[in-house]
Specification:
- By secondary structure, the protein is α/β, with parallel strands linked by helices.
- Helix content is 37%, strand content 16%.
- It has a five-stranded parallel β-sheet.
Length: 159
């Protein structure tokens, strides 16, 4: 099995070869801090928009800059979990707060984001041929999972 987790320069080389073969490249990104069914549904749908699915994963430092107290799971483990999904072809980590530089370097054909993003607000939508905002799945978010854990178990810590 080939390693799905690549440095940006390695991924650029692979993607250029695949585009030369006429493959349609789909890009999505996110923190993927605590993987849940909403992530799985979005990744499955994202893959249906092309041939190759790339995930840009926010680095630990990137998440810390945009989400207080996060990440919960470090970037190495987040990438390892994502690499286990059949619909995911490649993963790369980016350090910036947004994936715009990664998008400029990779030149995907399509960008896909979850339904919590309006199509016109998707970073990089103005750079690619297609952008899609997928249906939102109510209640399926990392923040909701963290809230449930805190609310359900916080009182039990003193027991």
């Amino acid at each position: 099995m080939t390693n799905k987790i690549l440095l940006m320069d390695e991924l650029i080389t692979v993607i250029n070869r695949l585009k030369g073969q006429g493959r349609k490249i789909v890009f999505t990104n996110g923190c993927f801090d605590i993987i849940h069914a909403g992530h799985v549904r979005c990744l499955r749908e994202a893959k249906s928009h092309g041939d190759i699915l790339i995930i840009g994963v926010n680095s630990d430092s990137s998440i810390s800059a945009i989400k207080k107290g996060r990440p919960i799971i470090n970037q190495g483990q987040r990438c390892e979990v994502l690499s286990a999904f059949d619909m995911v072809d490649f993963i790369t980590v980016f350090n910036e707060n947004t994936p715009v530089e990664a998008i400029k370097k990779l030149h995907p054909d399509v960008i896909v984001k979850g339904g919590d993003w309006n199509k016109e607000d998707i970073v990089g939508a103005d750079i690619v041929k297609e952008a899609h905002s997928l249906p939102y799945h109510d209640g399926l978010s990392t923040t909701n999972i963290i809230d449930v854990i805190i609310n359900k178990y916080l009182g039990k810590l003193g027991s």
